[in-house]
């Protein structure tokens, strides 16, 4: 006989999900209504407004896909990549690799531009690839590479895409709400994100946004989008609302209450203030880690504020550190992925989790975990360094 599940109370400072705001948790528990109920339709309209605010866009085609970030990714690729479409894909981490898979599965040709994990995308190399492949019609890149903690120069990459007459697809799963993101100013055509990172809602929804250029492309396609569920022209009959809503799928009603509340919280704080808070917390975290003698993987100018990759010192058992933090501090920090497995920790400062008490908790947990392995660090110096940055 199974019993009710009560999860342990963790602090989530890994690569996501992040801590869910208590107001979001409370919103999730409100009574379920029908997904075509007039009251729910009002909420849908507000979610679209809130997402446009978060993405900094006027795109009317902005809505949450009813599935996690990977489904937002597939929505972008399935709709904008027709059989034979050539796509230049930048890969400097795990998620660029997934883009390649998406292109191939949609029947397109992926032209890969590779960079070492932990380094930024070099626009010159991207331009070389665009020049060498004049039939390419899409440029795809990850704005915030969660596997490495590197950010991309999205404005420059989007300019390049326009110069070579390409649409842009940008992964902003980890950047939405956490660092500067300007869809319209930069001229991004298709973007996808996730609810569980800097928006601090639970995993399971993927906000997406499409420019009118992208919408035109989808309309003019000669072949059907290979996925029925993700076909924009079909799902918009439900999300658009201007011509009366029709059933497409049963929307995850309560999950959308949660996303709505997360967007209310973001608008109360102000998007620019949310970005500034992430930056301030990142600066404090890095100062504290430095005072402990720990080094960052990524160059300062390419670092993400919301995902910090920290090198594991020689001789330290990295998994044992994470286990210690979880067991004794209820603190989750992330492991390295792919070629960085065993070499780094990934410390998230995302959304509601980007706050001072989490930083000091993290310092205490790391110092205690390292002491268990006979590595002595100066916790007081670390606290002092953090506090100096937080004044
Ligand atoms: N893209 C990036 C950059 C991510 O960090 C993630 C998840 O961590 C995804 C895509 C996939 O999102 P999800 O796990 O919600 O499907």
Short synopsis of the structure:
The protein has 391 residues and is of the alpha/beta class.
Which features does this protein show?
single chain, 391 residues, alpha/beta, Aspartate Aminotransferase, domain 2, Aspartate Aminotransferase, domain 1, 2 domains, seven-stranded mixed beta sheet, four-stranded mixed beta sheet, 13 strands, globular, binds pyridoxal-5'-phosphate
Multimeric status of the protein: single chain
Give the strand tally: 13
Radius of gyration using CA atoms only: 21 Å
CATH topological fold name of the largest domain: Aspartate Aminotransferase, domain 2
Count of all domains: 2
Which percent range fits the helix content?
40-55%
* Biggest β-sheet: strands ordered side by side in the sheet: 2-10-9-8-5-3-4
Q: Tell me the number of helical segments per DSSP (H or I, 4 or more residues long).
A: 14
* Alpha-beta classification: alpha/beta
State the low-pLDDT regions, or none.
Answer: none
